[in-house]
UniProtKB/TrEMBL annotation, chain A:
Cited InterPro entries: DNA_clamp_sf, DNA_polIII_beta, DNA_polIII_beta_C, DNA_polIII_beta_cen, DNA_polIII_beta_N
This protein's name: Beta sliding clamp
Classification via PANTHER family: BETA SLIDING CLAMP, DNA POLYMERASE III SUBUNIT BETA
Occurrences of domain DNA polymerase III beta sliding clamp N-terminal (ranges): 16-142
Residues covered by the DNA polymerase III beta sliding clamp C-terminal domain: 271-392
Family stated for the protein in its record: Belongs to the beta sliding clamp family.
Chain coiled-coil ranges: none
Domain of life: Bacteria
Presence of keyword Coiled coil: no
GO terms assigned for molecular function: DNA-directed DNA polymerase activity
Gene3D superfamilies assigned: 3.70.10.10, DNA Polymerase III, subunit A, domain 2
From TrEMBL, chain B:
Signal sequence, renumbered to the chain: none
Catalysed reactions, as listed in the record: DNA(n) + a 2'-deoxyribonucleoside 5'-triphosphate = DNA(n+1) + diphosphate
Domain of life of the native organism: Bacteria
InterPro entries, per the entry: DNA_pol_HolB, DNA_pol_III_delta_C, DNA_Rep/Repair_Clamp_Loader, P-loop_NTPase
Gene3D superfamilies (alphabetical): 1.20.272.10, P-loop containing nucleotide triphosphate hydrolases (3.40.50.300)
Its EC number(s): 2.7.7.7
Record flagged with keyword Ribonucleoprotein: no
The species this protein was found in: Scopulibacillus daqui
Name of the protein: DNA polymerase III subunit delta'
Keywords, comma-separated and alphabetical: DNA replication, DNA-directed DNA polymerase, Nucleotidyltransferase, Transferase
Domain DNA polymerase III delta subunit C-terminal span(s) in chain numbering: 248-327
A GO molecular function held by the record: DNA-directed DNA polymerase activity
TrEMBL record, chain C:
GO MF term set: DNA-directed DNA polymerase activity
Active site: E112
Site (Substrate discrimination): Y20
NCBIfam families, per the entry: PRK01810.1, PRK02406.1
Family as reported in the entry's similarity comment: Belongs to the DNA polymerase type-Y family.
Complexes and interactors: Monomer.
Domain UmuC: 11-192
Co-factor remark: Binds 2 magnesium ions per subunit.
Residues bound to Mg(2+): D15, D111
Organism of origin: Scopulibacillus daqui
Reaction equation(s) it catalyzes: DNA(n) + a 2'-deoxyribonucleoside 5'-triphosphate = DNA(n+1) + diphosphate
UniProt entry keywords in alphabetical sequence: Cytoplasm, DNA damage, DNA repair, DNA replication, DNA-binding, DNA-directed DNA polymerase, Magnesium, Metal-binding, Mutator protein, Nucleotidyltransferase, Transferase
Family annotation (InterPro entries): DNA/RNA_pol_sf, DNA_pol_Y-fam_lit_finger_sf, DNA_pol_Y-fam_little_finger, DNA_polymerase-Y, DNApol_IV, PolY_HhH_motif, Rev_trsase/Diguanyl_cyclase, UmuC
Name listed for the protein in its UniProt record: DNA polymerase IV
Length: 394, 335, 409
């Protein structure tokens, strides 16, 4: 801090200077703070990078796994947000900076950085002097090549994330399974996630160059979760997606969300999905979900809430028992039943996870035996598929 | 530091690494093995710079030290260099899970990643096994460097999958020379180079007042054991014990005594360039005249015996008393 | 069982009244006197009531009722999620307390158990003893209980059901006609709704009807299980109070001292393999699988360490055991010479209940057993569940659905 005392006396060159409305600054600092972690092993990542350019101000926060860039234009809709006096950049301690800007007294904030990176923040009667860090030290996020951009509606993207992200593995034993595997081909985006006990797959058509083809793009489930939180689906906006060799970028109007990709080959799950079935049932999604939910109350949580399931003539029976709590039987009426009788056991948790992500009123469940994976699909929608591995009882 | 600096101390290591870089044939995993202070960490950092440098000299393979990658490797801010150093006794759980995550993710800035694991022998079994998994199926653009002083403590399966580079300790004379280059007086430089082969530790010693005073006291004591002016026994109570008041301190003192006796032997053998107490050459010569080589080796074994008793927790003062009597016994002024 | 006939026994069945709700109330006195329900998911109106306090029941709240319906009956109902660790801890203290009266205590479930007080009751009247136990439980655990006193387990169990909460009911052999026989056969402990239906179909509506029916006829229709039911209806039950019923199943251990101290991983592996094989045999014999595994090492200097963990997939075979034990060994062995090695498995589950979550990438290896499982399913669907499997499975399959759905009535 010894430099701070001198900064006003010595005539040091200006490295960056701008002023900005406090509200806009606070709003955008909050956006990028979502990516900043205090637990980082890279010192510079404890900071927020602030860049003033001729068209506006960019803030960047990152924990190296995800990075968020937030852009504040000079003006928008006839409202003026910022004026730039000198372009440049600096990195400021994120926690301190974010606390300071929230509490500044005036509507406007001036930020001025000298050549020694001493940063003077003034607002109304208050003045802060912070030691800045060299923006050159900050990670370089991959540059966007304008050519290969995919477009997806924001609400649809959030949907796809919700319908697949839950099935990723949380165990480190096979790291590539902690991500959702994206494949883009023929204008379709297929997303697959599996923790090896269940699998979720969703295919949507997207707005992309016909020849755009990407394989084995494995996005960490955690990143997608964070992305989903910051996407505002009510706006009806579109998200631009750019894929680079190491990162994937999701770009909305003023926000850019980067996530590192997982390394390694995602297993070929297509060949693991059964193509024939021996028992096919159609029933109400909601009725089944509620019945399983109730039955799972008596199933042991630490052992995956196993419930028993069997077909009767025109209904199915779900049962569960626990030595401590007792037994429960639930019956759910069937719309149709084709094929063999079946008795099977499975994790109620996996079933609830899958059913609660299907919006369709009716589902078809296709079984090929008590020890083989079974499929849950909406009756009228081919784009979504949930697969669950049963539990073997001895 | 560049490869030319590394070559001064670790010629073989430097040659192997520069050759591999030149041919673009770096191994996926290196094991840097060797005693403390032999430049393993600096070499790992240098290799990381050479791997990421944007304006590397294609002939010499030297990283530029100026580009943003070279600078960030030194400042610890390069996001694709993962440097793990045990926090205390072992590598912590949080460090391990971060390491595993970094292994499984692609890089931040490109698909190139570089891992350095210091004191790799302190890895938990879990960390070692996942490391092994990575070494067995490495991503093409990932390099790992394991650093250890105790390679024998690593799992065989890991060692066998790494290219091992052995870092050799610097010769005493070379350390002393380097210290002198750093404006350290020759007598002090020679003594600290005799005590350690870790250059950093040697520099620390030279700037340590305790070390300099210890040297003075040993000179005084050794002068006394053969002189007539004052009784060395009195001297050890008056000055020696207050200074060498702990076992490890007295142990260093005993080493100094050993070097003194070795110096006398060197004079007998006309091997004066090896002399540590170079500023006391007149006294040493005088003592060499008064004692036979046999007497000196006898005294040296007395010092070694004292060191042994010290490590067996015998009382400091009784160890020293007995030693002083034996050191005097060899001179003309036996008590 | 034979010795049991020699002398009239005095058996208590102690049953905690609305245990979970009572424990919650004991833990949070604010809840006292208020209607309380325990439900799986408080935030979700679709969740069902697992149990409720007497105050809630008085207002029409019933076990298995959805929360929204329960709230309609009782708008001020307080709903909480189950706190099983607390219930288990309370249960443990309960049984400790009961064992301070007699070692002959058999835990049946978290909140009920039998006591054989024949010896204890030689100098105190059984009803006095029951009162003192009931009061002690209420004082120390703040949980009400009901105690049934009878000459055998079945009658004691029936008796404890007769008066709640804080009831003490004596059911002697000579009371059977007046107190037991008028009850509907579905009320009988051990009769589930399916059996009840079948019994009604042959004209048996009350316990008395069953008691007066033809034993051979019942045995023919319901097998050994029917025979037992007939005997119980007549007040006959020779089962002993077995304190070991739970204890004996707690753990299986195998250990061996090595002929020479070793630091050889190969020797360790061979030794553990041999122990694992023995444990596999004992698990098979007991028809259980285990959820906890522990490795014990004794070093040459007699220092011992034990390290273990809990697993999600039940341990059954020597391969399962080795798959867990070698990583534990590698993680914890410090390289010193080993004198003794031991393996312990515990936290058992009967095989009929044990399960294994199949894996998408490896389920094919389980398919070799598919024909067998199909065959069992076919037989079961023809002849009813529980025809194949251990006696324990048989018993469980016939436990009352109605009674077991909730714990406390």
């Amino acid at each position: 801090m010894q430099d701070v005392m001198n900064s006003n006396n010595h005539d040091t060159a200006l490295a960056m200077k701008f002023s900005i409305t406090k509200d806009k600054l606070v709003e955008n600092v909050n956006h990028v703070m979502k990516a900043v972690s205090s637990k980082t092993t890279i010192p510079i990542l404890t900071g927020i990078k602030i860049t003033a350019s001729h068209d506006g101000i960019t803030l960047t926060g990152s924990n190296s796994d995800i990075s968020i860039k937030s852009f504040i234009p000079l003006e928008e809709n006839d409202e003026e947000y910022a004026t730039i006096e000198k372009t440049g950049s600096v990195v400021l301690q994120a926690r301190v900076f974010s606390d300071i800007v929230k509490k500044l007294p005036s509507e406007f904030v001036n930020i001025e950085v000298d050549s020694r990176l001493i940063t003077r923040i003034t607002s109304g009667s208050s003045e802060f002097n912070l030691n800045g860090l060299d923006a050159e030290e900050y990670p370089r996020l991959p540059l966007i090549e304008e050519g290969n951009v995919l477009h997806v509606r924001t609400d649809l993207l959030k949907h796809v994330i919700r319908q697949t992200g839950f099935a990723v593995s949380t165990s480190e034993t096979r790291p590539v399974l902690t991500g959702v595997n994206w494949n883009i081909q023929n204008g379709n985006l297929n997303c697959v996630a599996t923790d090896s006990h269940r699998l979720a797959s969703r295919t949507i058509s997207i707005d992309a160059d016909e020849n755009a083809e990407y394989k084995n793009i494995v996005i960490p489930g955690k990143s997608l979760n964070e992305l989903s939180k910051i996407l505002d689906d009510s706006s009806g906006e579109w998200v631009e997606i750019v894929i680079t060799e190491s990162q994937i970028l999701f770009k909305t109007k003023h926000l850019q969300f980067y996530s590192r990709l997982l390394d390694g080959n995602y297993p070929d799950t297509n060949r693991l999905i059964p193509t024939e079935s021996k028992t096919d049932i159609i029933l109400s999604t909601k009725a089944l979900l509620q019945a399983i939910d109730r039955a799972s109350l008596l199933a042991k949580e630490e052992r995956n809430n196993v419930v028993k399931f069997r077909t009767l003539e025109d209904s199915i029976e779900i049962s569960s028992q626990s030595a401590e709590l007792g037994r429960v039987f639930e019956n759910v009426e069937l719309q149709s039943l084709e094929g063999e009788e079946l008795k099977i056991s499975f994790s109620a948790k996996y079933m609830i996870d899958a059913l609660s992500r299907i919006e369709s009123q009716e589902i078809r469940i296709s079984f090929t035996g008590a020890m083989r994976p079974f499929l849950i699909r909406p009756v009228e929608d081919e784009g979504i598929l949930m697969l669950i591995l049963p539990v073997r009882t001895y | 530091m560049g490869f030319h600096d590394l070559a001064k101390q670790q010629k073989t290591v430097s040659r192997i690494l520069t050759n591999a870089l030149r041919r673009d044939q770096l191994a996926h995993a290196y094991l840097f093995e060797g005693p403390k202070g032999t430049g393993k960490r600096q070499a790992a950092s240098l290799l990381a710079q050479a791997y990421f440098c944007q304006t590397k000299n294609d002939d010499t393979i030297e990283p530029c030290q100026e580009c943003v990658n070279c600078r960030r490797i030194l400042s610890g801010n390069h996001p694709d260099l993962v440097w793990v150093k045990p926090d205390g006794k072992s590598i912590k759980k949080e460090q391990v899970s971060n390491l595993l995550k970094e292994f499984s993710y692609r890089g931040v800035e490109s698909i190139r990643k570089f891992f350095v694991i210091e004191e790799a022998d302190k890895m938990t079994a879990q960390a070692a096994n996942s490391l092994l998994k990575f070494i067995e199926e490495p991503s093409p653009q990932t390099i790992a460097v394991l650093i250890t002083e105790q390679a024998h403590k690593l799992l065989d399966t890991i060692v066998s999958r790494c290219q091992t580079l052995t870092f050799i300790p610097l010769p005493e004379a070379q350390i002393a020379e380097q210290l002198v280059q750093q404006n350290i007086s020759e007598p002090l430089a020679k003594l600290s180079a005799a005590v350690t082969n870790d250059i950093d530790e040697a520099v620390d010693y030279c700037h340590d007042e305790w070390f300099a005073k210890a040297r003075q006291l040993v000179i005084q004591l050794m002068e006394g054991t053969m002189g007539q002016s004052h009784s060395p026994l009195l001297m050890i109570y008056d000055q020696f014990f207050p200074h060498f008041d702990e076992v490890h301190k007295l142990d260093i003192g005993l080493d100094f005594i050993l070097y003194w006796l070795r110096d006398i032997l060197a004079i007998h053998l006309e091997n004066e360039k090896d002399i540590v107490f170079i500023d006391q050459i007149d006294i040493l010569k005088n003592q060499a005249l008064k004692s036979s080589m046999q007497q000196i080796t006898g005294k040296m074994s007395a010092v070694l015996a004292a060191k042994k008793r010290l490590s067996a927790n015998v009382n400091l003062q009784s160890v020293m008393e007995q030693l002083v009597l034996r050191l005097q016994g060899g001179s003309h002024h036996a008590v | 069982m034979d010795t049991a006939k020699k002398r009239a026994r005095i058996i208590f069945h102690i049953d905690m009244n609305s245990f979970y709700a009572s424990v919650e109330t004991a833990h949070d006195p604010e809840l006292r006197g208020k209607p309380l329900a325990i439900a799986g998911k408080v935030e979700d109106r679709r969740g069902i009531v697992v149990t409720s306090s007497y105050e809630a029941r008085a207002q029409g709240v019933r076990t298995t009722m959805p929360v929204w319906e329960a709230k309609r009956h009782c708008p001020e109902l307080i709903v909480k999620t189950p706190n099983f660790p607390l219930y288990r801890a309370t249960s443990q203290r309960l049984f400790q307390l009961l064992r301070s009266y007699t070692p002959l205590v058999q835990k049946v479930s978290i909140d009920e158990g039998y006591m054989d007080v024949t010896e204890v009751a030689s100098d105190i009247h059984p009803v006095q003893l029951a009162k003192s136990i009931q009061q002690k439980v209420l004082d120390t655990l703040k949980v009400p209980s009901s105690i049934g006193i009878a000459p055998n387990k079945f009658l004691a169990k029936m008796a404890s059901d007769m008066k709640k909460p804080l009831g003490i009911t004596v059911l002697r052999k000579r009371d059977i006609q007046s107190k037991l026989w008028p009850l509907a056969v579905g009320e009988m402990h051990g009769v589930g709704s399916k059996t009840e239906e079948k019994l009604k179909r042959i004209g048996i509506h009350t316990i008395g009807d069953l008691a007066k029916s033809d034993k051979a006829y019942i045995a023919e229709r319901f097998g050994l299980y029917g025979e037992k039911l007939y005997e119980r209806a007549n007040g006959i039950d020779h089962r002993m109070v077995d304190p070991e019923a739970e204890e004996t199943f707690k753990s299986i251990s195998q250990s061996t001292t090595l002929s020479d101290d070793t630091t050889s991983v190969a020797v360790v592996r061979k030794t553990l393999m041999m122990l694992a094989e023995k444990i596999e045999g004992r698990l098979r014999k007991k028809k259980v699988s285990a959820y906890q595994i522990t490795l014990s090492i004794r070093y040459h200097d007699w220092k011992n360490i034990s390290r273990g963990h809990t697993v999600k997939q039940p341990i059954q075979t020597k391969d399962d055991i080795m798959g867990h034990i070698m990583p534990i060994f590698h993680e914890h062995w410090d390289g010193r010479p080993i004198r003794l090695l031991g393996i312990t498995v515990q936290s058992f589950e009967e095989l009929g209940h044990a399960s294994k979550q199949l894996d998408l990438f490896s389920y094919q290896s389980d398919l070799k057993d598919e024909p067998l499982i199909q065959a069992i399913n076919q037989i079961e669907s023809k002849f009813g569940e529980g025809m194949i499997g251990s006696a324990a499975n048989y018993k469980n399959a016939h436990r009352s659905r109605k009674k077991d759905a909730g714990h406390d009535h």
